[in-house]
């Protein structure tokens, strides 16, 4: 088995070479940790150590949960970054627990239950397991700052019941696997568009979807959720966005590719830049290759892409590095009023998220922002 670095586990080695029990646990953990990307979160080394102990059979998933909870309860000092890491660690463990359970009910109440179990005690401004009672908008980088039109708060319960009842009565027996994937894609897109919760909708949708797909007899490939969860969210956005004035219409193409990889074993390329509403125009103007990015696409007034999956500290670091790519750790620490170690840790996270790249030597090199 390959040796993992301090921030990761080589889940694929467990999946390829491990015993059935280890394989199942590794799939669950890889999905759980990968899904944190949708909110720009990165689990801690301690979470990965705990996950490895669970995969190896040293501790149960229930014990893993208690260990993570106790770890954060015992911390005597905290930084702003600790809140994000705590959320990533706790929610990763809870997703793993949910995916390890065989029970499932295809009802809106199951969706509520998943949200409550994932986020109870984690979200403080949003009630876990409760539908939102206010309307929302969200600026999306993939839409140049525009928003999807989400369901009105007073219609959430009614809309969910309708969509679930329609899907429950749908007859899959006459469909090919390819057509079944198309139908599932549209159902998941519709469910996500309702956005029934104040926060945590994409992770809740993903967990519900995986359990639903398994209940239909599908073997769910973990790799897309593990490595492309930000693409997954962008694809959900594009499947629910129309702007006739700009000639843009709801497009499930991106989401279908994601699900075809999961369910049909295809290997469609899932690049975030593909989903941007200006991507075709970008290709026409700049061309495309494996190393190109959307760095030439529009950004907001503060010179930061809208809705990047980063926390506030990381967003500030990106902004300052766009201003001066040669800033040192000490320069950045002074700029954002944080410690040098906080800067170092967050720059490393941004590198792991493929949003930042170090060019040249540590002493005389510079930073390259990848959007």
UniProtKB/TrEMBL annotation:
Keyword Nucleotidyltransferase in annotation: yes
A GO term for molecular function: AMPylase activity
Uppermost EC category: transferase
GO BP, sorted A to Z: regulation of cell division
Fido domain residues: 106-261
Keywords for this protein: ATP-binding, Nucleotide-binding, Nucleotidyltransferase, Transferase
CDD domains: VbhA_like
Catalytic activity: L-threonyl-[protein] + ATP = 3-O-(5'-adenylyl)-L-threonyl-[protein] + diphosphate; L-tyrosyl-[protein] + ATP = O-(5'-adenylyl)-L-tyrosyl-[protein] + diphosphate
EC number: 2.7.7.108
InterPro entries reported for this sequence: Fido, Fido-like_dom_sf, VbhA-like, WH-like_DNA-bd_sf, WH_DNA-bd_sf
One Pfam family it belongs to: HTH_24
Protein name, as recorded: protein adenylyltransferase
Organism: Treponema ruminis
């Amino acid at each position: 088995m390959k040796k993992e670095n301090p921030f990761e586990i080589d889940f694929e080695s467990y999946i390829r070479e491990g015993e059935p029990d280890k394989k199942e646990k590794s799939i669950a953990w890889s999905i759980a940790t990968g899904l944190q990307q949708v909110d720009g979160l990165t689990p801690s080394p301690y979470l990965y150590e705990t996950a490895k102990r669970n995969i190896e059979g040293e501790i149960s998933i229930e014990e893993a949960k208690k260990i993570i909870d106790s770890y954060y309860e015992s911390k005597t000092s905290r930084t702003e970054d600790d809140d994000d890491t705590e959320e990533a660690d706790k929610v990763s463990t809870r997703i793993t627990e949910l995916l390890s359970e065989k029970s499932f009910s295809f009802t809106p109440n199951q969706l509520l239950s998943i949200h409550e179990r994932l986020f109870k005690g984690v979200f403080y401004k949003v009630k876990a397991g409760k539908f939102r009672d206010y309307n929302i908008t969200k600026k999306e980088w993939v839409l140049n700052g525009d928003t999807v039109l989400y369901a009105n708060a007073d219609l959430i319960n009614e809309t969910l019941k309708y969509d679930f009842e329609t899907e429950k009565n749908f007859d899959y027996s006459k469909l090919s696997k390819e057509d079944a994937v198309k139908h599932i894609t549209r159902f998941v897109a519709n469910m996500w568009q309702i956005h029934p919760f104040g926060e945590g909708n994409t992770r809740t949708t993903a967990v519900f979807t995986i359990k639903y797909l398994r209940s239909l007899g599908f073997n769910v490939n973990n790799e897309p959720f593990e490595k492309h969860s930000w693409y997954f969210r962008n694809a959900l956005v594009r499947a629910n966005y129309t702007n006739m004035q700009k000639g843009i219409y709801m497009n499930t193409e991106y989401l279908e590719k994601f699900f075809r990889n999961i369910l049909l074993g295809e290997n469609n390329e899932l690049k975030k830049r593909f989903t941007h509403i200006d991507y075709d125009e970008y290709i026409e103007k700049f061309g495309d290759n494996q190393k190109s990015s959307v760095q030439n696409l529009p950004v907001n007034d503060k010179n930061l892409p809208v809705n990047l999956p980063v926390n506030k500290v990381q967003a500030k670091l990106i902004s300052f590095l766009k201003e001066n790519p040669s800033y040192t750790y000490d320069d950045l620490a002074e700029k954002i009023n944080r410690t040098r170690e906080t800067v170092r840790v967050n720059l490393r996270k941004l590198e792991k998220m493929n949003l930042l790249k170090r060019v040249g030597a540590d002493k005389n090199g510079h930073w390259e922002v990848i959007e």
